[in-house]
Design brief:
The strands form four sheets. The chain has a six-stranded parallel beta sheet, sandwiched between helices. Strands 6-9 form a two-stranded parallel ribbon. The protein is globular, with a radius of gyration of 19 Å. By secondary structure, it is an alpha/beta fold. It is built from ten helices and twelve strands. Helix 2 runs parallel beside helix 4 and helix 4 runs parallel beside helix 5. The model has no long low-confidence stretch (mean pLDDT 96). The structure holds NADP nicotinamide-adenine-dinucleotide phosphate. NADP nicotinamide-adenine-dinucleotide phosphate (NAP) binds next to helix 1 and strand 4.
Length: 296
Amino acid sequence: MTSPLIVVTGATGQLGQTLSRRWSEFPIRQYQFKALDRSELDLNQAEAAIATLAELRPVVIVNAAAYTQVDKAESDSIEVHRVNAEAVGRIAAWSAENDASLIHISTDFVFDGASKTPYEPKQQTNPLGVYGASKLAGERQIQALAKQRSAIIRTSWLYCEYGNNFVKTMLRLMKENDQLSVVDDQCGSPTSTHGLAALIFAMILNRNAAGIYHWTDGGSISWFEFALEIQRQGIQEGLLSKAIPISPIPTSDYPTPARRPAYSVLDRSRTLTDFDCPSADWQAQLNRVLKELASK
Ligand SMILES: NC(=O)c1ccc[n+]([C@@H]2O[C@H](COP(=O)([O-])OP(=O)(O)OC[C@H]3O[C@@H](n4cnc5c(N)ncnc54)[C@H](OP(=O)(O)O)[C@@H]3O)[C@@H](O)[C@H]2O)c1
């Protein structure tokens, strides 16, 4: 008899790469693991994507693929909805019909940022832009079509040693410039894909995960405060040779096509109660990724 299969979409993304590199460390050896890149499963081609699932017959699908370019999304709403909502609905329906579990990743951008306290999973959503609206539509498809067997993990400010992210961009800019200005009036929580991957593996072990969960590395900081810590630890780990002045600026001084929530801290208490997941704080998680970058 062949082992049951876990399929991950978005193999080339930050989370997809992390899941691929880390899965063998977790006690899920009873499963086979297959991460599919866009050429193997394209969310823009839903028919073909479903045919691929029908051929592979996974018992768990982790949907780590998404249209993630938040600013480009503002002028590309048809494709964004096709990838982040319609295709997600098709996968959810296939999962329900074929008794597979679906673990889907969503975002803090489903909220408008008007709250002053951490967002709970059941709190009112109100996305400010096309990307957030498409991710919320994807969540709703899942809840309508595969509620019993699906877990939706909302996360925020993802980074790791792979791909493009704020941490790597800051390290580069800190090397190239004599000073830097960073937005100080958007507050959220950074999340290492390594902690998120550990949560996903914990959910795979406990096949009862269902509903909406929030996951971050904790903390309630601005991008400016995150940049200060990246610089402090970057020097400590030998990734940067010197400190440069970093100034706080308002969002109005750094205009972008998509509006972002001013406050998007997620309340992860239900997730910590329900799963055996890593609760290392965001500074410790950042340190792990910086050490990995320094070792390269
Ligand atoms: N990054 C963040 O700060 C953040 C914050 C909150 C939530 N999230 C969510 O977390 C999840 C993982 O994000 P991430 O940062 O790992 O994303 P990422 O690094 O931007 O990677 C996105 C992945 O999706 C794939 N993809 C895009 N369009 C596709 C399509 N039409 N068909 C198949 N694959 C497609 C990309 O493939 P290519 O390499 O071929 O483009 C890539 O593998 C996403 O659901 C995202 O919405 C991210």
